[in-house]
Design brief:
RHF-like; HPF/YfiA_ribosome-assoc; alpha+beta; Ribosome hibernation promoting factor; RHF/RaiA; translation regulation
Length: 118
Amino acid sequence: MNLTISGHHLEVTPAIREYVQNKLERITRHFDHVIDTHVFLAIDNLTEKEKRQKAEINLSVSGKKLHVASAAQDLYAAIDMLMDRLDRQVLKHKSMLQDHNHVAHKRMPDSGEAAAAA
């Protein structure tokens, strides 16, 4: 899995990088077919009293791209909300793949059974 973490108006410290990596372990525990991950962290100064911390992630899995965004007063809270939402999307994607692959085919009667029934 390729992991890219970038920041806008924010320096990505080793502590933030490690926190994101630890949170992503939960995602890879549920679904290990992750190809590429790009995490975008930003601080928007709306007013001086209210600073909005944003976290976004683009996750590439086989055949699909998942995008999740969250915002909170604290960057770590935004990352936590982001990972919770991403976890739900990954589990939904995984269940859709499993349901699709294990759909039972209708059984077609053999020509001998059809002739015997008639």
